Amino acid sequence: MRVRAEIAKLAQAGNALSIDTVPIVDHARRSTTISIPPVVQAGPELNPAQVRRYARHLVIPEIGAIGQRRISNAKVLCVGAGGLGSPVLMYLAAAGIGTIGVVDYDVVDETNLQRQIIHGQSDIGVKKTESASAKIQEINPDVTVELHDIRLDRKNVLELFSRYDIIVDGTDNFATRYLINDACVILNKPCVWGSIYRFDGQASVFWSEHGPCYRCLHPNPPPKGMVPNCAEGGVLGALCATIGSIQATETIKLITGVGTSLIGSVVIYDGLVMDMKKISIERDPQCVVCAHASEAKLMDDYEEFCGVGSFESEITAQELSQRIQNGEDFQLIDVREPHEWDESRIEGAILIPQAEFYDGRAQMKISLDRPIVLYCHLGVRSAHAMNALKQSGFNEVSHLHGGIVSWDEYVRNE
Predict the structure, then answer these.
(1) What is the DSSP letter of 366?
(2) Do residues 136 and 284 lie in contact, with contact meaning Cβ atoms separated by under 8 Å?
(3) Dist. CA 195–CA 218, nearest whole Å
(4) Which of 78, 254, 290, 298 is the most exposed place for a label (fewest CB within 10 A)?
(5) pLDDT higher for 409 or 334?
(6) Which residues, at least 6 apart from 72, have a Cβ–Cβ distance to it below 8 Å?
(7) How do residues 7-32 score in pLDDT, each as one tens digit?
């Protein structure tokens, strides 16, 4: 009962762990130990420069030269170069992972810098994949970096994941988490998962061959609006390092086969009171994905499943163009940064940077009586700003799908 009470508390805080459908084991009564063979075969012998660089790994008996050769031969894909992805990517680069893939389709925003430590002031407006790649190469030039400046979806996820040994989930939305989980089950790939909110964090490893998958923990997404994202609810920047470090550690343990994996367990961290617990979860025999892994398929629409991406809140570039041509009376707002605005903009728009939507300044500049259309670079920041407005009582708010990139493409093809 103590563990269920703890999870209920976290659910109220926004983490939405199900306490009714997940088999939970209290570690005070039972400890789950899952050790698995190394995921990666050892690569070539280390050269003298590598021996010097990784000397502190080599003297660890559990890792040694063979373990480091496995690390140098590993291919790891990190989905997201944000709060969690930043420490994950930096520590994996320092560890000497042979190939690191980075998936992200957003650009660096000033509001990212409080927690996304792989990016800096000079990276504002730069693609996150490019910024992350530069830092990785600076940390360790021996690492091969593969950039995927794409929006992960059901059309590209299986082909992309099949190239890597381990998938690290550094995302911040439920739709992508379910997509990642299902793809990993289908391909039998381990998924190293983390989640953060305000002062709370969670981490686990999901691998259907050896234990439960993400859907065993969360059979269904929380009701729409129950769990705010980091932009709406906030997150302590340093928390990202704690959870991201756990993810990096678990990734290296999977590669080398050392220690006890978090497969079948969830670490729950409360930074406000500095408390960390570990609970066990069991595979759900009724899980719609991992219980039938050989027959598992991707869902048609993960955003619809998670109650996001509703058509009434998102418009296409064509629809925006038509509204402008029809002379409709609405407020068109660019939520990017001033330097992005200076480079390009949609005629008739006004600039209100994203940060102003979270401290109330934007709400003072916008009329409640006229419809609002927001846009950014790719549609991520505008979606967050839209949610902030709706929580402030603005009803007629939508945002441009694909951002100014989709607008420019539409204008070019007209």
Answers:
(1) S
(2) no
(3) 13
(4) 298
(5) 334
(6) 43, 44, 46, 50, 96, 97, 98, 142
(7) 444 444 334 343 333 444 443 333 44
Give me the phi and psi of 370, to 5 degrees please.
-125, 140
Which spans in 271-348 are helix H? 302-305, 317-325, 338-343
Question: What are the helix (H) ranges across 34-173?
Answer: 48-53, 55-58, 64-72, 85-95, 128-139, 157-161
CATH class of 311-413: alpha beta
The answer to whether 230 is a known catalytic residue is: yes
Question: Which strand ranges, in their side-by-side order, compose the sheet holding 99-103?
Answer: 24-25, 275-281, 265-270, 200-206, 191-197, 166-169, 75-79, 99-103, 144-148
Q: Which of 216, 230, 287, 290 is catalytic?
A: 230
Burial 316-332 (b: 16+ CB within 10 A, else e): ebeebbebeeeeeebbb
pLDDT at res. 194: 97
For residue 281, the cross-strand partners are 24
User: In the predicted model, is pLDDT for residue 226 greater than 80?
Assistant: no
Residue 306 known to be catalytic: no
Please give the average per-residue pLDDT across 37-54, as a whole number: 97
Assign 393 a pLDDT band (cuts: 50, 70, 90).
confident
Q: Is 209 helix (H, G, I), strand (E, B) or coil?
A: coil
Predicted local distance difference test score (pLDDT) of residue 311: 43
The one-letter amino acid at 41: Q
CA distance 209 to 80: 25
Domain residue spans in the chain? Answer: 2-39+74-305, 311-413
The answer to whether 54 and 66 are in contact (CB under 8 A) is no
* Sheet-wide strand order for 372-375: 314-315, 397-400, 372-375, 331-334, 350-351
Residue 112's CB: how many other CB atoms inside 10 A?
23
Distance CA 71, CA 63 (A): 9
